[in-house]
Amino acid sequence: MTAEIHADFTQKQLETYQETLLERAKEYKSGAAYNRIMVEAAQEAKIVTDLEGDATRPAVVMWLTQKIRATVDEATKIPPE
User: Fold this and answer.
1) Contact 46, 72 (CB under 8 A)
2) pLDDT attached to residue 64
3) Which of 57, 68, 69, 75 is most buried (CB neighbours < 10 A)?
4) Residue numbers of the domain that contains 57
5) Domain for residue 81, yes or no?
6) Looking at per-residue confidence, does 2 or 19 come out higher?
7) Of the candidates 2, 13, 7, 63, which has an alpha carbon nearest to the alpha carbon of residue 43?
8) Is residue 26 part of a domain?
């Protein structure tokens, strides 16, 4: 499994990611589905690209979810003054 996770995304990409995540998450009630939606939202926003391999495996989806969360958290951290 390989994927390019971009930390240098734009504000518009972040908005697309969050809007997609919020819109699609309403339909699902499980954490596993939410993780899959997070990966799909990141792909749609082009935060995740070049995804190769079996992204239907739970361990792969969880790994991608953790990477996406960490990348978004780091990229949106307010720098110290």
Assistant:
1) no
2) 95
3) 68
4) 2-75
5) no
6) 19
7) 13
8) yes
What tokens were used for 60?
Answer: 């792969």
76 Cβ neighbours under 8 A, 6+ residues apart? 14
Residue with tokens 């790994």: 63
Name the domain count of the chain.
Answer: 1
Quote the percentage of the chain above a pLDDT of 70: 100
80 assigned to some structural domain: no
| Nearest Cα residue to 64 out of 25, 37, 26, 27 | 37
Give the number of other Cβ atoms within 10 Å of residue 61's Cβ: 21
Cα distance between residue 32 and residue 9, in whole Å: 25
Q: Tokens 């239907």 appear where?
A: 56
Q: d(Cα 72, Cα 75) in Å, to the nearest integer?
A: 5
The token pair at 26 is 């309403």
Sign for the CA dihedral angle at 37, 43, 46, 52 comes to positive
